[in-house]
């Protein structure tokens, strides 16, 4: 019921936002509305893929396993690719947020070292967007493909856990697919032995996360500085108000998913490193990620008044 409710509200509200951006007063934001439209489309896709998968996560003291309830009776490949589709679209929001900040930074601050972008803006922005997707989303997907997809070791580790907790048979004839990682095991002496490959993988994920966050923070400070400069004070009141509204909207569009999506996902990655097993709370963390696509259109509609 939760997934159906959030997906329905998300689709309706984002379609409303698309309509507002296309035919009503928000056309005054200029080319930036195309970024907002892109965000609305991605929000809809994220919500639909969430509904398609009904994702769940079980967190143990040594790692976690992500699986899709709707694909438990399908083949390994179908389950894995369904999960990867959710991962790809979820991380697309990271890239899109950073892209928004870079766009506002270039437009507001006109840095000399990025002046080439505005010479042929449509082509150059498209190249930047595609390049960011290849680096960030592509990096995440490749990481999942080569380290979190099913193998005999993780299947045998998580099979008894999921059987006891959810009556899910990972060893069944169809070999259900999942994404899982094990950070450490107990050796013959009963001592904790860290799996270096898993630590390197999670380290790479953290690098991707923080490089994206660092870019957002850099652009934020530059834009705030620019908004306080005398040349911005000399702008027409309506133009200055619009720039501040766009920036405020972007900040809220970052803060809300930090609370509902990025912090829960960070907990998912990092808590098992502490040796604490949260069990089914992992599913609650995953479910919370469905809130932002539902709330995002209202942030835009109510904060950008023109």
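^ Assign residues to that structure.
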């Amino acid at each position: 019921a939760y997934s159906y409710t959030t997906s329905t509200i998300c689709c309706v509200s984002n379609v409303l936002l698309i309509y507002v951006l296309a035919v009503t007063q928000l056309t005054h934001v200029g080319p930036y509305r195309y970024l907002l439209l892109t965000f609305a489309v991605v929000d809809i896709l994220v919500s639909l893929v969430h509904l398609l998968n009904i994702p769940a996560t079980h967190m143990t003291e040594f790692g976690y396993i992500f699986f899709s309830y709707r694909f438990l009776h399908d083949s390994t490949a179908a389950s894995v690719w369904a999960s990867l589709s959710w991962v790809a679209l979820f991380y697309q929001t990271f890239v899109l947020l950073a892209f928004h900040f870079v766009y506002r930074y270039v437009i507001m601050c006109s840095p000399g070292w990025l002046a080439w972008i505005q010479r042929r803006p449509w082509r150059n922005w498209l190249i930047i967007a595609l390049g960011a997707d290849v680096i960030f989303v592509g990096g995440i997907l490749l990481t999942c493909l080569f380290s979190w997809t099913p193998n005999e070791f993780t299947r045998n580790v998580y099979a008894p856990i999921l059987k006891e907790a959810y009556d899910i048979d990972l060893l069944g004839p169809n070999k259900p697919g999942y994404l899982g990682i094990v950070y450490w095991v107990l050796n013959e002496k009963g001592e904790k032995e860290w799996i270096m490959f898993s630590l390197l993988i999670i380290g790479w994920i953290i690098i991707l996360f923080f490089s994206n966050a660092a870019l957002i923070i850099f652009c934020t400070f530059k834009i705030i500085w620019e908004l306080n400069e005398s040349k911005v004070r000399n702008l027409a009141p309506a133009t200055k108000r619009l720039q501040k509204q766009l920036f405020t909207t972007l900040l809220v569009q970052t803060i809300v998913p930090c609370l509902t999506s990025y912090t829960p996902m960070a907990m998912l990655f990092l808590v098992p490193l502490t040796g604490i097993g949260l069990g089914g709370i992992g599913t609650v963390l995953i479910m919370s990620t469905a809130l932002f696509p539902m709330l995002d259109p209202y942030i835009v509609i109510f904060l950008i008044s023109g």
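The chain has a mean pLDDT of 87.
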